[in-house]
Amino acid sequence: MNWDEATTAPSVVRLDGVGFRYGTGPEILSEVSLDLPPRSFHFLSGPSGAGKTTLIRLILLSVRPTSGELRLFGETTADLAGDRLTQFRRRMGVVFQDFRLLDHLTTYQNVALPLLVQGYEEATFRGEVVELLQWVGLGDRIGAMPPTLSGGEKQRAAIARALIARPELILADEPTGNVDPALARRLLHLFVELNRLGTSVILATHDVALMDQVEAGRLILLDGRLYHDP
Ligand SMILES: Nc1ncnc2c1ncn2[C@@H]1O[C@H](COP(=O)(O)OP(=O)(O)OP(=O)(O)O)[C@@H](O)[C@H]1O
C-alpha cells in the first residue's frame, strides 16, 4: 500500500455515538464511538454481560443501532436492505461463541457452505477448502461430522468457515474459549497470520493472558461504554 492509499482508505468500522437497547429494555450500549482502520487487529474485552456479543451483532448488521451512526467500509449502513445488505454481510466473516456448525454436514461441507450459498461450483473451490482445513490443523477431520469433533476442532472448523470467503473483516466471539492454553495460542496465531495477510480482526475475549501475547488495540466495554486502550 502506498502512502496515498494508506491515508485515504476508509475506516473498516466506524461508530459515532451509537446506543443500543433490545426492545424496550435497558440501554446496553451508550454513546459508543469507534474508528478502526483497515488491516487493524483489536481485542474486545469486558465483563460477562457487558455487551461484547451485542457490539459484534451490531457490526454484523444483525441488529441496528437505536441511536447514532454505524458506517462500514466507508459507507453508512442505516438504510441497507435486500441485496445491498447481503453484499455488506459477505464482506465480513464471523466465528460465533457457540460455533453454529450444521451437524448433518461434514466438516468440509460446513466450511464450503458460504461459497455454495454464493453460487460457486464445487470444482472451483474444493482444493481451497481442503487447503484451509489443513491450515487450521483439520486436514485429517475433513469428512468428520461436527458431533464427533472435539471442542477445539469445532472451533477451528468455525474459524475456517468464517475465512473461506476471504472476508475483509473478521469478528470472532470468544474463539479460544473451551480450549487449553496451548491450543488457544495456536488459534490466536491463526488470526494474527490472517491479519498479516490484510484482514481486519476484532476478537472478543475474557482471556488477559491471551491478549498479552499480541500487540494489538484493546477495546473495553464497561457499563455500556466503550474505552480504548491505548
Ligand atoms: N436478545 C436479547 N434480548 C434482550 N436482552 C439481551 C439479548 N441478548 C443479550 N441481552 C442482554 O444484553 C446484555 C449484553 O449481553 P451480551 O451477550 O452482548 O454480553 P457479552 O459481553 O457478550 O457477555 P458474555 O461475555 O457473557 O458473552 C446482557 O445484559 C444480556 O442479558
Automatic annotation (TrEMBL):
Gene Ontology BP terms: cell division
InterPro entries reported for this sequence: AAA+_ATPase, ABC_transporter-like_ATP-bd, ABC_transporter-like_CS, ABC_transpr_LolD-like, P-loop_NTPase
Name the record gives this protein: Cell division transport system ATP-binding protein
PROSITE patterns: ABC_TRANSPORTER_1 (PS00211), ABC_TRANSPORTER_2 (PS50893)
Signal sequence extent: none
High-level lineage: Bacteria, Pseudomonadati, Pseudomonadota, Alphaproteobacteria, Hyphomicrobiales
Family annotation (PANTHER family): CELL DIVISION ATP-BINDING PROTEIN FTSE, IMPORT ATP-BINDING PROTEIN
Family according to the record: Belongs to the ABC transporter superfamily.
Organism field: Enterovirga rhinocerotis
Domain of life, per lineage: Bacteria
